[in-house]
Write a structure and sequence with these properties.
- The chain is an alpha+beta fold and 327 residues long.
- The chain contains 5 helices and 21 strands.
- The protein has an 8-stranded antiparallel barrel.
- A hairpin with a 2-residue loop joins strand 4 and strand 5.
- 30% of the residues are buried.
């Protein structure tokens, strides 16, 4: 071998080694992410990964997750979109959405949602799993087994279709609501499984044949109940006042009592008069007013500082009343 050629080979080998060293060792994708945020387990009402109820504000979550969290827009139902904190926005298996309704609670999200994307013939997966084993893709039979008994879901084919209406006293509780997708291939969905107002038991044979699996999960960290008790004056009509007590509501006109009805505060709004299903119901607070002849469901929209707003189910088109607290 001539000396120039030998020197050239040595130079090339040295350059190759230098390039290889410059590349460094192969790095696990997780190594660039702080270990503290790689907990993908959650316990409904208590914890979501490393997020707990006393450190769950929007700013705290953004600080905790750093570059792995962004502010973005999410769909919340009925055609509406709102801003939310999105964890791992570019990783479908780790993505989670935290929606804050600060009219209710400035310290905790109103709901946390994980969602799977389904394409026929493919399995859905998420790294997020409840401490009792429920995740995206879990079959309805397995959910029933974890719950300990059959539960009730809403009919399919509308915005809140396939969502849990009632756990029927099982292991799961309000504040935790998976929704289901029918995955049976090559078959039309039976009409008896469709429609707003339809309720289905999880052990229904027709439902089971359609192979429902969990497509999304909504949960929370527990929420601060709205401070609705006390006397309030209408902004639109200052002569109209009402007083919420623990077990009754009193109506006043020009200072005189005109009506009193029984009252029940109901987190989760699981009452027929409310007409809620799944996450929409379990993430709201309602006041159930029981008169002599009817039952009304008032959904609290805002009970923050000295302002109260609520709408009454069934009164479509009515302007939402606003009340101010009386000292």
């Amino acid at each position: 071998m001539s000396t120039p050629r030998f020197i050239l080979l040595i130079a090339l080998a040295t350059a190759f080694a230098a390039c290889k060293n410059a590349e460094g060792p192969v790095v696990d994708a997780n190594s660039a992410v702080p270990a503290r945020i790689l907990d993908f387990t959650f316990e409904p009402g208590k914890r979501f990964g490393p997020i707990v109820s006393d450190s769950a504000s929007r700013s705290q979550v953004l600080a905790l997750y750093g570059d792995s969290a962004v502010l973005g827009t999410i769909f919340i139902g009925e055609g509406y979109e709102e801003e939310a904190v999105i964890l791992f926005p570019d990783n479908p298996r780790r993505r989670a959405e935290l929606y804050y309704n600060e009219s209710y609670d400035t310290l905790r999200p109103s709901f946390i949602r994980i969602t799977g994307n389904y394409e026929e013939g493919e399995e859905m997966r998420s790294d997020w799993t409840s401490t009792n084993g429920l995740s995206i893709g879990t079959s309805i039979g397995e959910v029933e087994k974890i719950n300990g008994q059959p539960f009730t879901i809403s009919g399919f084919g509308w915005d809140y279709g396939g969502q849990v209406v009632n756990w029927n006293g099982g292991a799961f509780a309000a504040g935790f609501s998976p929704s289901f997708l029918l995955t049976a291939e090559g078959e039309e969905t039976p009409m008896e499984l469709l429609g707003d107002g339809t309720e289905l038991k999880s052990d229904d044979p027709t439902l089971r044949k359609a192979r429902p699996v969990v497509i999304s999960i909504s949960t929370d960290l527990g929420r601060t109940p709205p401070n609705y008790l006390g006397r309030w004056r209408s902004v639109a009509d200052p002569e109209e006042e009402l007083e919420f007590q623990p077990t009754q509501v009193l109506y006043y006109r020009a200072g005189s009592l005109t009506l009193s009805n029984k009252l029940e505060f109901l987190p989760g709004c699981q009452e027929t008069a409310c007409g809620f299903s799944g996450a929409g119901g379990t993430n709201e607070f309602c006041l159930i007013e029981k008169g002599e002849f009817d039952v009304q469901c008032h959904v609290i929209i805002r009970a923050f500082n000295d302002t109260l707003q609520y709408f009454t189910m069934g009164l479509d088109g009515e302007e939402i009343p606003t009340f101010v607290r009386q000292k």
